Amino acid sequence: MINTVQKLFLLVFFVGVIIFVGFDLVFAAPRFLTLPFSQNLNVLQGWKYAPGSCVNPGPDPCKHEAIDYDTGVNRPILASADGVARTYSQYQNNYGYGEYVFISHSNGYFTLYAHLNSVSSNIIYTNNPNTSLWTSVRRGGRVGLSGNSGIGNSPAHLHFEARLDNYSTPDRRDPYNIYPINPNPINIYYPPNGSSFSGCGPDYFWTVCPPVTPPPFYTPVTGTISQNTTWTNANSPYVVRGGVTVSPGVTLTVEPGTIIKFDSSASISMSASSTLNATGLLRAKIYFTSFKDDSIGGDTNGDGNATSPAPGDYYGFYFNAGSTGSFDNVVIKYGGNYDCCWNNYYGAIKVLGGNVSVKNSELSKNSSQAVYVTGGSLFIDSSVAKDNVGYGIYANVSNVTSVTVTNTSFSDNTRYDAYLNGPIDFVNSGNIYTGTSTSRGFYINGDLSADQIWNSGIPFVAQSVNLTTGKSLTIKPGVIVKFYANGLIYLNGTSTLNAISTSQNKIHFTSIKDDSIGGDTNGDGNATSPAPGDYYGFYFNAGSTGSFDNVVIKYGGNYDCCWNNYYGAIKVLGGNVSVRNTRIANNTPYGIYRDSGAINVSYSAIYNNTSYGVYNIQSPSINAQNNYWGDPSGPYHPTQNPSGRGDRVSDNVNFRPWLLADPTVGQVGPCPGC
Length: 674
Hints:
By secondary structure, this protein is mainly beta. Among the domains are: 1-30; 31-189, Glucose Permease (Domain IIA) (Distorted Sandwich), CATH 2.70.70.10; 450-522 and 529-674. Helices cover 4% and strands 39% of the residues. The chain has a 29-stranded parallel beta sheet that branches. A hairpin with an 8-residue loop joins β10 (158-163) and β11. The N and C termini lie far apart (143 Å).
């Protein structure tokens, strides 16, 4: 029998054991942390500041109670273990955590990551200690980017703490457990991690000592996405493997700050009526990149520096007929490959009948082209297309397709900034070129299926542009149009060309080989030079109209011997054309050729055309008064002005009076008595 005293003793004993065990369970080292970055880095300061650098006020100026790692700026900072996280800001004069992340781990410990340059946008911003409100994070998941917030001009680094308090009365612990075995350690006890490490104390917190970087963390994606799905920042990076298909009617949503990496030859194919919504934020962009790209999200494939990303590492996106895609504040790079065995569709984004919108985004370092279009619609606004090995945009269509590009910057794409072939409704405005090489331009070929306006900013390269009946092309001031070899603009019945500008901001029509205006658009350096007849020019057929005002037209006039014999940069074949304040020079054989229809030319300069400045094949006469012909003596005509040394004119050209100098470079009166 156990008496009362024995019972009391046993009760006290077991309570003591429980208290002791409980104390040990909470406070003994749990061996649960990995390093908060993806490669070994030097330690700047250990648990105590080194002698001579003690800065804290109070009785212990060498107190630090944290580890400072030499990260530099914008290195991805990773969660050292699973948990829930919050972020907040702390600034106190010249010190403070700045932007920091605080993580609660399931074993009762907390970790703190301070002086960040930015924090992953999915982490809740709050100072509330209620951990049920915090955001779930995974070991190795990115929580932010390193910086020097809160410490002014001090070297950028990560201030890392392990704690047993929920940001209340600080109870910090040395994760290396070196401090308890040496009461006054200096930096020698915290050398570069993984190099001549002197060891940890018996109760270190790392999974192993010396500590290791976390294994590559990512969420793999394969097969078919058959239900509405959201990809989150907390579970990124995602790695797409093989061909992933989004089923009909399904929506794939990508949260701000999420990173998606594509393995070799991987793709995302959008089925009919499926939707991709990838909407990031200015400070939390969404990234679609190569599995080999360590610059964002770290070394996800875990091979160190063994591989590097390159254009065409993966296929990219397929938007099939009826699908929808929206990209906003997104970066897409290193895509654009294709499967030669079942399609020939190049491009990181392949619009194959779907409707795709790209806003505030970057398309860079893709192979062949950033965007490939065969049908559907493409809308790009306020974005950047740069360093693509090929075209920025490539559209080759057989049915009417809408392509809109506005307020977008193009830079150093190796081929045309946009290649548009077929019946494309092309809307453009506010686009600029910002590269170190010359803009390769917007290449245009095929029928204009709707009224179009060409705006300045990026040169246009015209191949065979056909204005169908009833359509109009308006060319705004400052536009440069370069014609490809044998290029032309062909106007059919009731179509209209309006090229009206100002003397300060002329419109230029010239050869693709002409580097003097708009730079080296054909990208061949000095290998070629422009010459008369480099392209065909303008065809104004019966019923069409054209207006040129403050325009320069040069190096045109050739003809296609196989289907017409019409020479001249401007060919009037039944249309009605007005030309004012325009320079028509260096064309062959004629500057202007009239077969039928009407053309009026005034206050223009017509010179250096190889045969005739104006050639009228039949009556009635062309009204060509008050023009400059290349010489004050006027145009040459064998009977009407045999002493004229300017460009020759044919019969049926009313050229009197003429001007004594080029009116396109200043105000000039007519020749008295001419």
